[in-house]
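Title: Comparing notes on inverse folding

I've been comparing how different people in this forum approach sequence design from structure. To keep things fair, I'm posting one structure and asking everyone to reply with a full sequence. Here's the target:
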């Protein structure tokens, strides 16, 4: 017991000796070598309610896997939106060091820097597979980490929903004119595009959308995909469910870490955290893809009306999106730098995916009965 107390009292951020019980420390051999790594206790603020086990699950995957891979010596506890900080203030808390890390979406913070949207998703941008290609092997993650460094933060992709749905409306939206004056919850640059199409844009954390829609404080809302939207109860507050979510073709959720805390970690813990984040990135996407179809069937059986956006709205939204990017690039050198690199990558991968993915989908997926 003396050795346990010695380790606990000298380790970084140690608040408990509980994790040491599993280590069976000895004076010799490989186990003692393992125990030379410090005990680290972190808190992770998130933007999600725990009821959304898919997206909150991204945070849980990181925390669980980091703990397992360090035999409990590096433990991170995830917290739901509002438990430590409000859901849309995770970056602020990580930047301030209120928490060591967070799990959130970069596009909630475009008011601080519009280029943060690239780390999540842009209207008419990249799907999940393309987004991962850009982030991991197309210079995207380096570009985003450069921006986050100005906040004293480092980010890692840590989840993706796949292409989202186009939101819930209390009445049918057939034309751009029907959008005029509509109050809609929609964050990110998608919100800015909707604003240009006449929408009165609101940004609310996930856990607050249902009440706002049900009480009529907003006329429309988007969250994510059928599985999550059903969990939030959005189908009980609005009947018309549109697709596709042209503003979020493949949104990346991300782990954000206070840079000073990150630099205090042993290299081994940094690598373990990065590995756990990458596992969360894949696992969340796989989970959504496995769950969404059945959820959509349940929604349709319950009376939800599924409607595709009209070509007029799609074309107007695409035109407004490209105009927005060009205007942002003209006035913001950081946005311009990321945008030009991202745009070039998008053109190339679109060309490739027209040959492989799209030609396959157009034959096999589109014609499946
Ligand atoms: Ca969304």
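Reply #1:
Here's my take.
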């Amino acid at each position: 017991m003396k050795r346990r107390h010695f380790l606990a009292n000298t380790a970084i951020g140690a608040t408990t000796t509980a994790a040491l019980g599993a280590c069976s420390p000895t004076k010799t051999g490989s186990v003692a070598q393992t125990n030379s790594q410090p005990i680290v206790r972190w808190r992770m603020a998130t933007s999600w309610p725990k009821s959304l086990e898919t997206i909150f699950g991204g945070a849980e995957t990181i925390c669980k896997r980091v703990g397992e891979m360090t035999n409990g010596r590096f433990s991170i506890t995830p917290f739901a939106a509002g438990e430590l900080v409000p859901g849309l203030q995770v970056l602020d808390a990580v930047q301030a060091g209120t928490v060591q890390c967070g799990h959130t979406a970069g596009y909630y913070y475009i008011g601080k820097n519009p280029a943060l949207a690239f780390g999540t998703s842009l209207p008419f941008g990249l799907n999940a597979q393309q987004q991962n290609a850009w982030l991991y092997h197309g210079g995207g993650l380096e570009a985003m980490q450069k921006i986050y460094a100005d906040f004293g933060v480092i980010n890692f992709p840590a989840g993706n929903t796949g292409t989202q749905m186009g939101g819930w409306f209390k009445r049918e939206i057939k034309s751009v004119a029907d959008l005029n004056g509509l109050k809609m919850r929609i964050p990110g640059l998608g919100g800015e595009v909707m604003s240009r199409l006449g929408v009165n844009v609101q940004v609310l954390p996930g856990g607050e959308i249902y009440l706002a829609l049900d009480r009529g404080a907003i006329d429309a809302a988007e969250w994510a995909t059928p599985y999550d939207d059903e969990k939030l109860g959005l189908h009980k507050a609005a009947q018309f469910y549109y697709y596709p979510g042209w503003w979020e073709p493949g949104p990346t959720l991300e782990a954000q870490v206070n840079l000073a805390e990150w630099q205090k970690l042993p290299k081994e813990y940094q690598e373990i955290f990065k590995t756990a984040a990458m596992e969360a990135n894949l696992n969340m996407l796989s989970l959504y893809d496995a769950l969404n179809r059945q959820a959509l069937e349940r929604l349709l059986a319950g009376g939800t009306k599924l409607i595709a956006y009209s070509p007029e709205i799609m074309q107007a939204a695409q035109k407004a999106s490209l105009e927005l990017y060009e205007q942002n690039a003209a006035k913001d050198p950081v946005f311009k730098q990321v945008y030009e690199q991202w745009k070039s990558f998008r053109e190339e991968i679109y060309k490739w995916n027209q040959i492989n993915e799209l030609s396959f989908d157009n034959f096999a997926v589109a014609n499946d009965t």
